[in-house]
Amino acid sequence: MRVDVLFRWADLDPQEAEGRVVVVIDVLRATSMIAALLKAGAKEIWPVKEVEEARSLAAELGGALLAGERGGVPPDGFDMGNSPREVDPERVQGMPVVLTTTNGTSAIERALRADALLTAALVNTGAVVESLLASDVQRLLIVCAGTQGAFSLDDALCAGGIVSGLCAAVQSELSDSAMAARFLYESQRDKLLGALRSCRHGKVLESLGMGGDIEWAAKVDSIDLVPVRAKDPRGCRIVAARRGERLVDVGR
Amino acid sequence: MRVDVLFRWADLDPQEAEGRVVVVIDVLRATSMIAALLKAGAKEIWPVKEVEEARSLAAELGGALLAGERGGVPPDGFDMGNSPREVDPERVQGMPVVLTTTNGTSAIERALRADALLTAALVNTGAVVESLLASDVQRLLIVCAGTQGAFSLDDALCAGGIVSGLCAAVQSELSDSAMAARFLYESQRDKLLGALRSCRHGKVLESLGMGGDIEWAAKVDSIDLVPVRAKDPRGCRIVAARRGERLVDVGR
After folding, report:
1. Would you tell me which CATH number, out of the four given (3.90.1150.10, 3.30.56.10, 3.40.50.300, 3.90.1560.10), belongs to the domain B2-239?
2. Does residue A252 surpass a pLDDT of 60?
């Protein structure tokens, strides 16, 4: 498998996604939130970039829940913020959820031309690795969202966790950034919570009183499902695949 | 000290360099070559982006030597390529050298508005760290050249070596990328030659028969001087400062 890593969403030329399997990562917190929502039983997640777009899509879908943040807090009238800890299974069970965040949904939007599009966070790195291995992926591109245009340690660590997991199972050809991410993860795998607390976005969340989300997001392999984009003419719809499920079989 | 790292020269907005001390890194091979040339007694190095620009500046300076590469080999009529191993002290002693390379000189050109501009490679990381410490730098920006627009492992390792050296001596406030570079370096410090051989540019050099340059470039702290830009109306002129010399005192 050939594996490349981009450390910021703006580094992805949308055309580059074509012909590849793309994994999008925004550990703090969009892709942790997507995993949390699907684990709590949400029917599907619709990530969109703008707040207004989120409102009109929710109306169009007929009663979808609105989730997301601007500056770390939920916009007016939203059903919930972007805190995976606060997802209420009773509320989201069976519901479509429209999600808008600052960095993560931009990364997903850039990757829409991918042959297959997954999202990953530390909480479901192992499940994502197993699905990639089960799917005989030839060319994998891992796209870190980053934080406000800059390299983000949390996302790079997660990218490295995926590379590390793949390399443990199959012969892989790594780009320089994929090698760096792997070395980074393997040097910090026993200290992930500390690394997440010390990074820029972790400090912002602490200052907003959301430090609990960091602990939540640092629980490696606590969630056993893989968020996968399902083709849909209405937009980007993300559903849950099982751990190890072949990507080609996900078309619901 | 506040420390930030950019992993590709194109990530540097030239205005961002203002008010900062900037260290430019292109381990394979521009900044290793600059260190080699100055160690061999070259009077000064003039890095320029284009081959034609190099030829006309050499003529303007009156008999400067021409060094550099395109695709790893010297352009027609150049006195030498970009191989630090092949620098001949008898030839360069006391001479100005105009140097043009594919990635490294682009990085230097982007950083020209810096308050102070240094170049670093693995061969002189320790000397650079001592000069930064001696100069009470407040805001440091380390700019990796990268390889053809992409993240380059060799440069990121060197950036991490500088961050690691600084953190061992003073309390530092690191950006996420600076933390990542530090973790990366500290995990590979005993395996640098292997890492350089496995990276993309290392493989290109091996395939061009220049694998010896990789061994040369991986010799950490083998050179005890700091290449520093000296203000000059004619362009970017780089001269040698001593290990630990205060940057403010370098104006020759």
Report:
1. 3.90.1560.10
2. no
